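User: quick one, fold this
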Amino acid sequence: MKITNTPNLNIQTNNKNNKELEKACQQFESIFVDMILKNMRKTTQGTEFMPKSNGQKIFEEMLDTKMSEKMSENQGMGLAQQMYKQLARNRKISNK
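Assistant:
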């Protein structure tokens, strides 16, 4: 029995791959924004009178991570959309 590819199957596979690519680009943008926030936080000076405790440092790291995730949702900085366009275009070229 010979099985041939059907157009519907290819469309479903392409849609799944596109969703996965979009999610990966969004996650990359989130990681990038997280790195930016952490480096920005390093530039602020603490005071000698109130040094940061370990709990405060952990909280700030968790806050930066959550903020970066929220910032990259929807439109975000636009990095994820640009990466998606470029990678999707490259994938179309390589599939030909």
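User: anything notable?
Assistant: Residues 55-96 form one domain.
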